[in-house]
Amino acid sequence: MKLPAPIFVVFFLFFSTFIFAQNNFEFDKLSGENISTQSITYAIKQDSIGNIWIASEEGVIKYDSKQIKIYNTYDGLPENLNNRVTALFVDSKQRVWIGLENGLCLYDKAFDKFNLIQSEIDINPSLITSIAEDDTGNIWIGGFNGLWKVNNETLKLSKKGNSLNIQTIAFKNDILIYGTLNGLFSYDSKTDVVTEILENQSLKNISFIGNVKDNTYAGLKSGAIYILNTSLTRANKVDLAFQIKHPIKDLITDNNSNIYIATDGEGIYYLNKDFKLISHFRENVDNPFSISSNGVYDIEFGDENILWVATYSGGINYLDFNKKPFQRFKHLLNTNNSIATDFSRSIAEDKYGNIWFGTTKGISVWNPKSNTWKQIPEITPNKNKEDDIVLALESDNDYMWAGTYNRGLFKININNFSATPYTHETNKTIDLEKIYTVFKDSKNNIWFGGIDGSLTVIRQNSRVDEYPIYQIKHLTESKSGHILASGRYGIYKINDANKEFELIEKLKPNKVNLAYATINAVQETTNGNLVLATNGSGLVFYNVKNKSIKKLTIASNLPSDIVQGVLLDDNIVWASTTKGLAQIKITETDTIINVFDKKEGMASTEFNYGSFAKFSNGKFAFGGRDGVTIFNPKNILESNYKPNIVFDEFKLFNKVIDAGKKPLSKHVNEVDKIILTAKENSIELGFTGILHSSASKVKYSWKLEGFDENWSEPSTVNFATYTNLAPNNYIFKVRAYNKYATVSDERQIQIKVLPPWWATNQAYVLYVLLFLLLIVAIVHFTSVIVKKKNADQQIDFFNNITHEIKTPLTILISSLDNITENIGTGEDSKKRIKTTVKRINSLFEQMLNFQKVTSEGYVLNEISEIDLNTHINKRIYNFGPLTQQSNLQIKFNNNFNEPYFYFDKEVFDKIFLNLLSNAIKYSFENGTITINLDKTAKNGLQIEIIDEGLGIPKDQQKYILTRYYRARNVINSQRPGTGLGLMMVKKLLEKTGGSIDFVSEENKGTKFTIQLKSLKYEYDKQLQQKESTIGTIEVENEDRSELDAFSDSKILIVEDNDELRQLLVDTLGVYFQVFEAINGKEGLEIASQIFPNIILTDLIMPELDGMQMARQLKDDINLNHIPVFMLTVLQNSAQKIESIETGISEYIEKPIDIKFLLAKIINTLKWQKKLRDKFKHDNDSDNASLFRNKNDQDFLQNLEDKILENIENESFSVHDLSGSFSISRTSLYMKLKNLVDLSPQDFIIHTKLKYAKKLLIEGDCSIKEVAYRSGFSNPKYFSTSFKKFYKMTPSGFLESLKQE
């Protein structure tokens, strides 16, 4: 601040007492959302999850960034101990150890409690002061009664050495060193010998030993600090530019190698790496941001760039370096060298860079360069001696305009702080006293407005003008030169040159979309649009060109709808609200809102209107009820710290379930699955995303798979409740987000709600058994009834058949007798014999056709184009002799009107001829038979056959389409028949999607109506299949490269059809080595000789069919790895299932598509290659997903097991291995080469190396011992083989494990 010399002297003398300046390093006091911490603390550590563990006078404290939990003898500590915890340590396995006055405890995370570590002798360690871990993971304890060690296997304590009253312990180059009141000592664990070190330097009263970077430091109770050399033969004192007179308790460094020294009496010294003082953190009762006690017992630099401090009598303090960009200004007690009060109403910067704060106690002026303050409680003296309430400040060269709530407007000289009032008393034209805003426009006019007077302008010539505009809270100037006056009624746009003004209509308050009480501030964006801070409608964005409005409110994640101020930083909007400072980033696709409050370094969470400003150096200032925050928005960087999710608690019916109590076998954070009964269907899961740097901003989203369809909207709620869960398997998943929407790793717990007893699997099994018993009973009694009925029908049927067959046989025998005895003419007898034989043949043909049609596997033969007119006339003509015998006339009416009907011609004839022959058979003489053809929907065919014959009795019509049945009047008429014809017609129609119906009247005739489905689609498909015949297919050029890669593969073709076999040999022989066999027996013999890669076999063959051959291959250990492709015309699904169960790899139907067959062959060969490559690469035979069948996997596993059983047998050979499985050496070689591309000898070495690798990982043996234990007689050969398979030596492999 520039001042004239005399005034500066007065100013300096007056403010010479301003010796304390607000510090950029501001400590906070730790307090959870539920309880506060203890004031007396001894140690503090952070685990890998992020929990802060604190040793205190009243027990152990765990802080997860949200909640505090205290473990004491009432909850979590053994009851026979006291609550005073003096030491705390988190080891490399993340186990938490605590030392107490009379014992050592270890945290059991499964049950969320500490267990006492038992001693091998009758006494326990007492007054434990230090806990440490050596390089091998052993835990060592130092205390009043000496040195102790924890046995890693038994977890029991044993006493070591004979020293007493150990103050601190540490390790230096695998040597345990400890400090006592009498000096510094080392302990040799192998000899149990204690040796005093640095005896000649008289290092006494050791209070701290620790390793920092590559150095080991020793701190004394006198405050001296020494660096120990590597050999522990010399200690160099650290020279400091200042003197420490109190005990050294801890010494650590941060990521920048800066050093922190904790003392018991002088707070914390913050030094650079050269031990030069950066800052000294001490308790200051007048500064709320100072450390709360000078007795600092432990410090810990945490994972999120936070310094944690354990103090004696001051509890836990922490310094969050993430808050460093925020500079907080609060009133300090008992000094004027701070802002007069926390409550500010206005902020401005003068031309010297000094910052002016308008408060409820006048004006405070801060000089950033000297960090000194000037207080102006009364701008000018007033008779009531009241402090001025300053609501507005505006810089004007050498002056600062100040608007007050109680005394009007003042013009203050910034050099000497003299002030000139501009009030009604000094200028009658000014009637405004409660001034909320002051603004200097581009023409140097001073505008000011308020709530109880007109908007007023003071011109450069001191002329005062007024505009009849009231209730103004903010003034600014647009790029177009218009003055924007905002307040209760909206925004007035003022053209001062023309003395015109208008209210922007779209921004007037209304109940629909702009229900605000007032507009507190307005800013203009670079493109001329307006951003409004409103009291009630949040943040409003107004597009000047199209007059559109967009809002951000609480519903848009704005912290409050009351926005007090707004500033712009390029495209980022900063808005101060009553519930935090919002940073708003708007893109074309998204709007991101980040909120800052006290917990992240802000001085205040509730901000005031008018109290905001942008300074010449780009910094922003926002003031509120609890102080002012100044920061550079460019320095606010997004944090990449992710929350770590832990499950806190589990509730059933709103009752917390403790660890170990049903249904929790362990603490909820340690379980993977929770099983609930059907009644336990109302649950609540609590969780916390540990993030100390911004705990209050952590948001959670969760989903219960099996219940929720979508993830919940992110919110700060950290528990999920579900009621009335139905029996099912659920997975609860939860994520956490930091304030910048960086998502954490997902946590999940399986939750299974069991069904009630009547809905369990056992109950369902019982229900099924009862149901099956009921079905069996029904089937049994039904079958009894049906059998009786069928027996009667079968008796009638066989009587009919017997009669029908006996009659022609009688004729046949009689005719033969006539020929033998020369009775009658020979020609007549021959004719009767011929006719009789035809009739017998017809009877048998009907029975065979019926059996074929009614079988499950009956399918259509070939779909044909049928010219109905020609085809049916031919069939009618063929019946000419029969119709002539009875003088019958057949009328044919064809109304189908399509050139062709598409159907199976054989099936069509069976249906049509059966019905027509029946019509002829049962018609009276001289009658007429009518045949009508009509078209149905989708080009189907309807056939009507009408006769004038016997008809069917009405009471027997319902049986006429059942098996074996013949009507009574037909039997009496002596007309031949079996009762099978109509049944066969019905079955054929059912199989082809058709239907049959009839109308009949006894002695008048019968009309049969059938409907046939057009099979045009099947006909077209059949044509396409015919066109793509097996002999005309060529392989595309692009497939040749893949085929060439497998040209050495062996394909065995087993097919009894010579023509098809030769065709396959010629086609596949172009690409592979092809071998052939004519039946399954020959195929097995050839397979045993050549060991093919794939076998193609027909199903039906002489001597040994394809199915039988596949079974024998599956049972043969030499050949069961070979894939088998079954080629057949059978389409029976049951046949396919049987093929697969027999070991068939692929099922390929005839006619064969060569492209499809080649694709299947290539895929199988590629899979075999992939299996071999992956086995050698991953060195793993127990990955079931690699193998096409379990036999291959089991075979390799059995081989490995046999090798490992004989691993120490140096004489165990390939011959012994093959003999163990009753397989020849050749078969074993071929099988292993096919499966994993390894010879038997390489496979043995490979298995031994796998075992050696396992031993190396376990780390219990040297490399030479591993070589011998894994069956290698020569360690050098072992190293060579290991490097060949694993691309690194055994020693290199061990080094890689250490790096991981």
TrEMBL record:
* Native source organism of the sequence: Siansivirga zeaxanthinifaciens CC-SAMT-1
Q: What is this protein called?
A: histidine kinase
User: Any transmembrane segments, and where?
Assistant: 764-786
The protein's matches in Pfam families, at most eight in alphabetical order, are given as:
HATPase_c (PF02518), HisKA (PF00512), HTH_18 (PF12833), Reg_prop (PF07494), Response_reg (PF00072), Y_Y_Y (PF07495)
**Region forming the signal peptide:** 1-21
The UniProt record lists the Histidine kinase domain at 800-1016
- All copies of the HTH araC/xylS-type domain together span 1197-1296
4-aspartylphosphate, modified sites: D1098
Q: Which keywords accompany this UniProt record?
A: DNA-binding, Kinase, Membrane, Phosphoprotein, Signal, Transcription, Transcription regulation, Transferase, Transmembrane, Transmembrane helix
In alphabetical order, the GO MF annotations are:
DNA-binding transcription factor activity; phosphorelay sensor kinase activity; sequence-specific DNA binding
Catalyzed chemical reaction(s): ATP + protein L-histidine = ADP + protein N-phospho-L-histidine
Chain segments annotated as coiled-coil in the UniProt record? none
Give its E.C. classification number. 2.7.13.3
Upper lineage: Bacteria, Pseudomonadati, Bacteroidota, Flavobacteriia, Flavobacteriales
User: Which PANTHER family does the UniProt entry name for this protein?
Assistant: HYBRID SIGNAL TRANSDUCTION HISTIDINE KINASE C, TWO-COMPONENT HISTIDINE KINASE
Extract the SUPFAM superfamilies matched here: ATPase domain of HSP90 chaperone/DNA topoisomerase II/histidine kinase, Calcium-dependent phosphotriesterase, CheY-like, Homeodomain-like, Homodimeric domain of signal transducing histidine kinase, Quinoprotein alcohol dehydrogenase-like
Q: Where is the Response regulatory domain?
A: 1050-1165
